[in-house]
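Quick review question:
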């Protein structure tokens, strides 16, 4: 049975890579992986925010099913993880790198092995909860830019450990294994190592569609812009985007080191290697930075997988998601997956199935209500609980500039039916409100018992 290496970055929009067509953001290692395997052109995250997306991927369930609506972890979730379920079936599962954006202490997730894993903390910050306090100001990490000599030091350590594990541990295990390697970039701050900064300095550009564009006036987009405080001058926008490009290329370099390690260890023929991320990055489009939007820049993700079961040099248009990737791990190692988990192994999905549905959702802070995405074929529905719905034909309008909700009611109704087959949007929104109200109560209780300046405490 094949083994699996999953390399996962944080906040990488596929628009910014040569693999997905960017003219100058170079990702030669991702291109190399694409030549060996399959590029998924319509891949989506379960939710455009760290904790909901990563927790959904970890558990095989939608974010609303496990009540991970935001980045506050004050109420611990207790659900089986893919690492634990695989380990129970004799698969050696290793998790390496950042695990701070999960639903519970990673030591309790059941993985066979944790390496350099950071402690997950409760995040007692009410600004991360819908209905909580407004953000007091723009986080420095969002507006920071420039060259930083130690910018990627922690991530180099993560990849060093992954390379060592692949060369010295994996060949001796004698049973199927998976390793998930996590790195922080290109998540903010939009700074870079000196070489990377020099490579893209002067190449920072302005978003094609800014805050003044008609498509940027939807109420949810205005909410994100108004709460974010991102009225940046053009010179800062250029610097932030250049830093993001440099971070993407850095991640690509580290991916190459992992691929090289697999080959050096003689594991290339029997190992599935996948690259993805947890969500995208708006990077100034519509005047919005970060994630939380259900537009393509934020909710769509890169997904490239090579190895047994994946056709070399193939590109797949069928809409897929991170839960399909998680199902692929089980398929690759020949393990049984819980029947109530969502997702279909990518190895079994037709390359041009225009009836298949991809799903995403967001219920967190900085917007006035929850929202959902249904992608089927070329059509994309953004279903908003507290604002008008939006409908886009991505074949002719990949930038989502022309909302067709009023012009194509039959398509809108068809995609709404697909959404209601997954969940009741209004019921999910009520549950999200109630759960986040509970989070705020628990936060208030902790704040009465710990110093005001302490916003994070570990689970015990």
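Suggested answer, residue by residue:
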């Amino acid at each position: 049975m094949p083994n699996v290496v999953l390399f996962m970055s944080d906040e990488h929009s596929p628009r910014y890579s040569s693999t997905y067509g960017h003219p100058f953001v170079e990702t030669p290692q991702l291109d190399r992986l694409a030549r060996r395997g399959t590029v998924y052109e319509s891949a989506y995250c379960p939710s455009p925010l760290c904790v909901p997306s990563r927790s959904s991927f970890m558990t095989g369930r939608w974010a609303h099913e496990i009540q991970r609506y935001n980045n506050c972890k004050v109420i611990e979730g207790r659900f089986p993880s893919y690492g634990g379920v695989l380990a129970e079936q004799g698969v050696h599962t290793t998790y390496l790198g950042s695990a701070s954006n999960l639903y519970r202490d990673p030591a309790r997730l059941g993985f066979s092995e944790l390496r350099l894993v950071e402690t997950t903390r409760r995040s007692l910050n009410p600004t991360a909860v819908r209905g909580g306090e407004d953000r007091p100001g723009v986080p420095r990490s969002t507006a920071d830019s420039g060259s930083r000599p130690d910018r990627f030091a922690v991530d180099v350590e993560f990849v060093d450990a992954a390379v060592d594990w692949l060369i010295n541990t994996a060949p001796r295990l004698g049973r199927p294994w998976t390793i998930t390697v996590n790195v922080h970039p290109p998540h903010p701050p939009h700074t870079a190592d000196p070489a990377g900064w020099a490579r893209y300095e002067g190449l920072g550009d302005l978003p094609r569609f800014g805050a003044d564009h008609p498509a940027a006036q939807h109420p949810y987009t205005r909410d994100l812009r108004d709460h974010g405080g991102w009225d940046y001058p053009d010179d800062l926008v250029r610097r932030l985007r250049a830093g993001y490009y440099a971070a993407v290329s850095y991640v690509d370099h580290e991916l190459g080191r992992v691929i090289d390690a697999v080959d050096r260890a003689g594991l290339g023929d029997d190992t599935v290697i996948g690259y993805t991320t947890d969500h995208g990055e708006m990077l100034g489009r519509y005047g919005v930075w970060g994630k939380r939007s259900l537009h393509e820049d934020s909710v769509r993700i890169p997904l490239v997988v090579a190895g047994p079961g994946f056709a070399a040099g193939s590109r797949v248009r069928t809409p897929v998601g991170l839960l399909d990737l998680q199902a692929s791990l089980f398929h690759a190692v020949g393990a049984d997956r819980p029947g109530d988990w969502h997702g279909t192994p990518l190895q079994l999905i037709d390359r041009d199935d225009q009836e298949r549905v991809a799903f995403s959702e967001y219920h967190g802070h900085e917007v006035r209500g929850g929202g959902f995405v249904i992608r089927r074929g070329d059509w994309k529905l953004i279903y908003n609980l507290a604002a008008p719905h939006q409908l886009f034909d991505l074949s002719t309008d990949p930038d989502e500039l022309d909302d067709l909700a009023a012009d194509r009611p039959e398509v809108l109704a068809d995609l709404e039916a697909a959404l209601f087959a997954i969940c009741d949007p209004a019921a999910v929104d009520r549950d999200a409100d109630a759960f986040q109200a509970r989070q705020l109560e628990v936060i208030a209780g902790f704040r009465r018992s710990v110093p005001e300046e302490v916003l994070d405490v570990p689970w015990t």
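Why it works: The radius of gyration is 21 Å. The chain has a mean pLDDT of 94.
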